[in-house]
Amino acid sequence: MADCSPTTGSIASNAARHTQRTLRMIDDTPPQFQEDVRAWVAALGGRGRRPSRPLSEATIAIYLNFALPVLIGWGETYESLRAVEVRDIEEALVGHAGQSRHNVHTALRSLFRGLKRERRVFADPARAVAGRYNRRMLRPVSSDRLHGLFEQFERADHRIILALVAIHALTIEEIIDLRLDQINRTSGRATIVRPHTRHTVWFDQLTTELLHSWLAYRHVRWPSSANPYLLISGYTAPTAVPVSRHYITRPFREIGLTAGQLRVDRILDEATQTGDPVRLMTVFGIGNTTAVRYVRTAHPGQFDVDPTAP
């Protein structure tokens, strides 16, 4: 996989951005809770009553992001976090399942554990709530199976499909729906339209070369085709419909892997290099819960080791 590690300058810039995000979320916290939340954030950053290993600014922002909706809800009822009881924690988790429940519970557990350590609350109501959850483990593809992957294909369409999955972690559906007008060849980017957002994919040199090769082949093979989609076949070239799922998955069947396996491998590779959930959210356009899951898999314990723990 290509080395996409951020530079020292970008790391500092990202840290500053996460700090500003945390400050904005503190401002969004109900006023009566803000001093407690500031004390918790300070403890997570190693600035509490007792010295501790600081968490990264990105991790702190993610913790607060998970806790904020709950705090806003409690703000309508309580004047102090000292009034929160076990049943309030349980009710806060009712609308969550699986890892989402785990993430919210972890954030609340950290909050009350930190506040108790800072002597701002007397009890930790989150401690008594079970935080177990079930999830499918993410597994990378073995390196020997990835070696020379692109060399196994001669067809230009198969090679660009492979690049979009194995380098940019697009889904099969996103590749099927990718249109020519969503690609800016001059700037080297593509806009991926998703149900509730748009994600920008920046092409690396290999993807750019493979894209040019495919478009050149497409022009020679079907010069009069007005099909608006990037990928076309002999069947779809005279039409305005996209190719089938079977067409997209064919190259993966030939090598005995699935597009899903390669997509997971790519995101795990990035998570291993950066350890930064926000980086994954930016590069791949995935949600914060999914990003944390990948970083947790790549760096076991990163989010379970809380500096406010006794």
From TrEMBL:
Q: Does the keyword Transmembrane helix apply?
A: no
InterPro entries given in the database record: DNA_brk_join_enz, Integrase-like_cat_sf
Gene3D superfamilies, per this entry?
A: Intergrase catalytic core
Q: Where is this region: Disordered?
A: 1-21
Indicate, by first and last residue, each region the UniProt record lists as having compositional bias (Polar residues): 1-17
Keywords of the record, alphabetical order, are: DNA recombination
Q: Which SUPFAM superfamilies match?
A: DNA breaking-rejoining enzymes
Instruction: Report a single Gene Ontology molecular function.
Output: DNA binding
One of the GO biological process terms:
DNA recombination
Protein name, per record:
Phage integrase family protein
Its lineage reads:
Bacteria, Bacillati, Actinomycetota, Actinomycetes, Mycobacteriales
